[in-house]
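Q: Structure for this?
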Amino acid sequence: PTEPWCIGGPVIKGFGRGSKVLGIPTANLSTKGHSSLLSEHPSGVYFGWAGLSTRGVYKMVMSIGWNPYFNNTEKTIEPWLLHEFNEDFYGEELRLVIVGYIRPEVNFPSLESLIAKIHEDRRMAERALDLPLYSKHKDDSYLSSPL
Ligand code: FMN
């Protein structure tokens, strides 16, 4: 496995399809200021830990890329925090420690197959993050350090 890497910033609004169309609420991060970091890491699906300053640390699975299914022209960073939240947290500081890579981003013939694949990614991330190799990063100080 490669070294973990970190990225963070305030949670911004995505295109709004995640929760509504897919039933998969993602907490998007701006790509601004992260271009060199993003050029070092290929587009695709990653997993790791997400820290929200005022709430805690959660498992996450995320996509970085252009979402070929939706033909986005802008690269996005879309972590899905694997926890039931009762409210939105736009504007809150989100810290990510990314510990593993699952697969490249691909296009899908239907919305159903995209959704099914994302749930498969989620199950894989949840299992992997229980392994000592990855679970130890839950305690990384970056996840909860102040700005
Ligand atoms: N979009 C794709 O087009 N291809 C993919 O392979 C793909 N994989 C994803 C994997 C995960 C774990 C997540 C969270 C998203 C993935 N997506 C993929 C992105 C969804 O298309 C995206 O979340 C959707 O565009 C909603 O974005 P929005 O909230 O900005 O509207």
